[in-house]
Design a protein that fits this description.
Layout (H helix, E strand, L loop, with lengths): L1 E8 L2 E8 L24 E5 L5 E5 L5 E2 L5 H9 L26 E3 L2 E4 L2 E4 L39 H41 L9 H87 L6 H89 L2 H12 L12
Parallel strand pairs: 1-6
Antiparallel strand pairs: 1-2, 3-4, 4-5, 7-8
Helix pairs in contact: 2-3, 2-4, 3-4
């Protein structure tokens, strides 16, 4: 069962259709006892839906609404609907003759159009329920980007989806810059590795001897080992951090382009349908005005001719009303399609953003893991140096050097006369 909505805007009624599941016939549901201080308008009764929500039924016209009807709203609605009647004489009998015959459940409320999109007006009565969020308490994209955002610099307003898209594009750019940062770190590691390797082959202090010479030689070898560690760190950064960032960014860009084109096309279709509604609305107003003029010009002397003119004007007015209803239906279908795709796409962008953040987090954690490993390997390269430095013994070095380079043990004595 579907709920159809009738709204009044710019002097014209519009009909909207919104699917709703779970409705049953009113005679199967309990009537809610009225506890409000203000009674319902005559002919209206309150019921409880299977989901536990209040709704209101007009027992005469079978009209149904989620909003509590008020005498003021009903009065204004009926007084503003004269153009929909089949003739000027029966307005009071059938104020909604073009729409009520096709609607089993009808909700009456006022709407506004902003950039070709229809929105309900804010609640005007304390008991009028507000729209519920699609995903409460989640701050989901699908709940907060329906209206267009005005640019403070005077450029045309930006659609809510465009704001979401700019967020994704900014995220894509940030990811690109992160990859560039890692690339610069890789270059530094490569250069550092080359310099360490070159330094380890330096002949400086190569002639140092003894235990100190051994420690010095080990220190030079540790520079070579450290160069290997940094080279491996550089290679792993490229394979395990930089490359995934770049690959994910490319896929992300393709996804965004697909969604962007789709939503833009649907918004253009909606604008086109809205233009059709406005054109049909103007045509109906013109036909109604023509009918009123011909009715007021009724001349008894030319009764037959004027009656024929009035019949023709009435047929044209009725046709214009049918055209308006048809265009409104096309508009509502286009808006419904745009609404569904906006929800689907915004949730998909939300999912992609979560994936992007999680992927970057995992890659940065991999970076820190590799960095810790590099520190551990670097530490292992200097441990042998520490051990040899602890074994450095100047006395032992002197003994070894003397044994190898001594020139004689006999000391000089005084000369005899």
């Amino acid at each position: 069962m579907g709920l159809s909505f009738v709204s009044f805007s710019s002097g014209v009624f519009s009909v909207y259709h919104q699917p709703h599941e779970g409705f049953k016939e009113k005679n199967t549901l309990p009537t809610i006892k009225q506890t409000k201080s203000v009674p319902l308008p005559q002919g209206w009764r309150c019921y409880m839906s299977p989901e536990g929500c209040r709704y209101y039924v007009n027992t005469g016209s079978k009209e149904t609404t989620w909003e509590r009807p008020s005498l003021k709203a009903i009065s204004l609605l009926c007084s503003s609907s004269s153009f929909l009647s089949s003739s000027p004489s029966d307005v009071s009998q059938k104020p909604l003759s073009l729409v009520s015959h096709s609607l089993e459940f009808v909700s009456l409320f006022f709407c506004i159009q902003i950039n070709c999109v229809t929105f309900p007006l804010p609640s005007v009565t304390p008991d009028q329920p507000e729209q519920q969020l699609l995903k409460p308490n989640e701050w989901s994209y699908c709940d907060y980007f329906w209206t267009d955002k005005k640019d403070p610099q005077g450029t045309p307003s930006v659609g809510g989806f465009e704001v979401l898209l700019q967020k994704q594009l900014k995220g894509k750019q940030m990811q690109k810059e992160m990859a560039e940062f890692v690339r610069e770190r890789i270059k530094i590691e490569d250069e550092y590795s080359k310099n360490l390797s070159k330094l380890s082959q330096s002949p400086l202090a190569a002639q140092e001897e003894g235990t100190l010479g051994e420690a010095w030689a080990q220190l030079k070898r540790s520079c070579h080992d450290e160069a290997e560690v940094h080279l491996k760190f550089s290679n792993k950064l490229q394979c395990e951090v930089e490359k995934p960032l770049l690959t994910f960014r490319d896929n992300f860009k393709k996804e965004l382009k697909k969604y962007d084109h789709h939503i833009i096309d649907l918004r253009k279709q909606l604008a086109s349908r809205y233009a059709g509604v406005e054109k049909a609305r103007k045509a109906l107003a013109d036909r109604q005005k023509d009918l009123e003029v011909k009715t007021q010009q009724l001349d008894i002397k030319h009764m037959n001719k004027h009656e024929e003119d009035i019949k023709k004007a009435r047929r044209k007015s009725t046709q214009a009303g049918d055209d308006l209803m048809h265009n409104v239906d096309l508009y509502n279908r286009a808006q419904s399609k745009w609404f569904e795709e906006m929800v689907t796409t915004s949730l998909e962008l939300e999912r992609l953003e979560v994936e992007r953040v999680e992927m970057i987090r995992q890659n940065l954690r991999q970076y820190t893991t590799l960095r810790h490993e590099t520190d551990m390997f670097n530490q292992s390269t200097v441990e042998p140096v520490d051990q040899l430095l602890q074994s450095v013994d100047p006395a032992k070095d002197r003994e070894l050097w003397v044994q190898e380079h001594k020139t004689g043990e006999l000391r000089p004595v005084d000369m005899d006369i």
